[in-house]
């Protein structure tokens, strides 16, 4: 299928071999929370909107009843510890597998290859289905040379995890990065996957701080992260109680 | 995906910065009833048919057994209180989300942008799931500047309504209008959504009369509108009776 | 969507304003049986195969284990009572609504418009859901002028039948015929729709004989048609018995 | 639909009228096991990767956590008993029927037709739904002339088998071979279809050895093939026991 991805530029920033950070919706929304938070904290600026027939034919209304079409957005920030960064953000991934491929293929060919990217980091969640108290950040790389570099920054590489592979934009952009020789990694914040996981996002942010050589004020996230701690503790308590009851069941 | 929308012109009218009014099938068919009624009352003329692989592969028969292919239609009328109007009408929306996008994208690029539209009004229903006695007409706009203008014409702007956003051609045409800088608004007639709602259409027509500075004879619609009133009253009566029974249930 | 319909010609016959007869699978397979039977009886010759990604990705094996790819076929015969005829035959319709549209659109533009068709007859079934003893042949036309002409040939025009319209290739080809000004009609053999209906096909053939001013030996079909008669009688008998039992039920 | 199949060459080997052998996932994975095994045993070399929006938007991780995008691969080996061979291998077929068609159509037009193929052999499984002790290798051909040639190599031709035809890449490539005049055959290893069937693959390999005039060390497969024998024996034993019990049921 030919695609009709439409990229509309607000401006066309001059960037010096930028780093691409992708954070679209996914498991526990870990990637999206992290990318959105970092993008805002670094004072980034939106420079383009990405439209596609594979996004839902939908507009959302803001508080002024002004419409916002379903899209993805490109933001940039210059000179973050000497590096330029581009963010791919949004509330949607393509609605179909084909659509996801075509959008990423178009973005790579029409936008990212022209930018001469130095690195690609795609951010996602790694859903374990179990409560996680100390979320790890797992990694997958386009090239084995990247592995040691990222291990030093706190990324865990665990052979065979995730066993089911990686899907969606996070998978495709790292794969296209590999195809075109751009050092690319997918970072996956460990999460139960049962709720939007700010704690996993904090763990991911720490890794990104280390990679970029910066520190950002994460206090906004810390509050939500503590709520995750409380939620996790409560779920564990309930599970323990239930298990005890079941163990004692034959007495009762 | 590339699209094969086919637009066949019966004629190509000379129009002076026309207003586009879209009214395709949707919730309570409010938009469709309103657009069809106004189009007919103003003595408009069909000038083009729109065919697409995203409409069902279907012909309907009229009373002479002459076939009519599933399509959308473009109608125009000149000099309505000094303004030219184009209507987008029909019995179908694209069968898939992708199809809806591609049809609207093609219409915008191939037809509407060439017409130098002055305004876009897309008409739809706002389904509340509850009986509505005095239907409001809610609005969503491409630009905040339009809001006050429309409030003066009787449009209600309610932050966060509809919470689920707007979908389909009504959403896409206003979004594309926004994209290309055409002042655009979606008007949504409040309706239970349970039946074809002529009363909500009357409310919508009153707003459009105010916007266009005209009055049209709505007596045809008034009869059907009264039937909606009776239907609404009956449903409410039944609900009340049921609730009373439930309240009294423990006595009986 | 752009389409990749592939038309491969075995030969390119010189034809003089041919009549197109379409008979693809459908309700009771009435159209397909009729077109296949007439095509063979008239000694027609295949001249092209039509391939599409919308047909199933399938080959069938003949008795020599030679493969035959899912496709549609074009056959022709010259000088049938002075008229040339092209048949569109096959075991498949496009698997999706979009596919059906694209195949017919491609056939019309790439093949049929170049042939300067004099008439289009699309053949289908009209499923009533009830046993039919004397199947009518209903008609739908591209132009009211065709109606009287066909009524004289034994076609029944019944306002509002079929109420659900006509779908698939039979609908699309007559609609495209209408679009391009080719006199076009859909003939629909009345059928219960519960089995492959050779009796309805015989009725349809009689109409086509009348239209073309020819007679063909239908004895092969007559045997199968009588089997339909017996089947219909049996079903009616069972229904009557059941109804009687139900009527007497309160006595038993 | 237009397609965006992407073929990326690692190298572009000079080949002399190569034989194409396709072995992608399918019934009992017989075709895939056979093609993968032969490809490796002959010391073949990968020369291209095939990407498509119809493969899942997925990367899998190897033990180094290096990502591998869902794709098909082209491998070649020169001078196998005087013949050059190209293998089409992979872990995926297109996710949709349309996708399967488009990938094969693109491969045929962009890769295989340029190679001036001498033969196409597509490898698949023929699922019988019953335990098979001595799997046959059934054949289907593009041209009846190939039949006797293959019968001499141990291929069974059984009119009407498989009754449901052949689907997927194995069907399409032989069909396109037929279309373009390339002698093409589909070989189908008989299998229950209930598990990955190495025994059927051994039978298929023996046929391919005979066709290519070579012998390969199949000892690796023989072990797994024996496991299939044991599994088959066990299932048969259980079935017999169950049947006996059922026969005796009225006594118990």
Give the quaternary arrangement of the chains: homotetramer
User: Class by helix and strand content of chain A?
Assistant: alpha/beta
On the 0 to 100 scale, the average pLDDT of chain A is: 93
**What is the makeup of the main sheet of chain A?**
8 strands, mixed
* Side-by-side strand order of the widest sheet of chain A: 1-3-6-7-2-8-11-9
**Chains forming the largest contact:** A-B, 27 and 35 residues
| Shape call of chain A | globular
How far the N terminus sits from the C terminus of chain A, by CA atoms, comes to 64 Å
Taken in chain order, the helices and strands of chain A follow as: EEHEEEEEHEEHEHEHH
Percent range of helical residues of chain A: 25-40%
Unreliably modeled segments of chain A? none
Please tally the helical runs of chain A, counting DSSP H or I stretches of 4 or more residues.
6
Beta-strand percentage range of chain A: 25-35%
């Amino acid at each position: 299928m030919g695609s009709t991805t439409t990229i509309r530029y607000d401006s066309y920033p001059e960037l010096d071999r930028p780093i691409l950070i992708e954070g679209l919706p996914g498991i526990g929304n870990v990637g999206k929370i992290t990318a959105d938070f970092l993008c805002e904290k670094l004072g980034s600026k939106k420079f383009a909107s990405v439209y596609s027939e594979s996004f839902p034919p939908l507009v959302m209304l803001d508080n002024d009843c002004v419409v916002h079409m379903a899209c993805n957005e490109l933001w940039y920030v210059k000179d973050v510890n000497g590096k330029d960064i581009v963010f791919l953000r949004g509330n949607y991934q393509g609605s179909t597998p084909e659509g996801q491929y075509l959008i990423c293929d178009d973005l790579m060919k029409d936008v990212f290859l022209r930018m001469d990217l130095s690195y690609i980091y795609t951010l996602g969640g790694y859903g374990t289905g179990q409560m996680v108290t100390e979320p790890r950040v797992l990694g997958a790389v386009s090239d084995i040379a990247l592995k040691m570099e990222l291990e030093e920054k706190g990324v865990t590489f665990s052979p065979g995890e995730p066993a089911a592979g990686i899907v969606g934009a996070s998978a495709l952009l790292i794969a296209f990065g590999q195809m075109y020789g751009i050092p690319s990694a997918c970072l996956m914040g460990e999460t139960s996957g049962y709720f939007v996981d700010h704690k996993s996002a904090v763990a991911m942010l720490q890794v990104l701080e280390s990679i970029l050589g910066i520190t950002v004020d994460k206090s906004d996230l810390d509050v939500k992260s503590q709520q995750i701690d409380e939620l996790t503790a409560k779920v564990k308590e309930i599970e323990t109680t239930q298990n005890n009851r079941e163990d004692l069941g034959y007495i009762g």
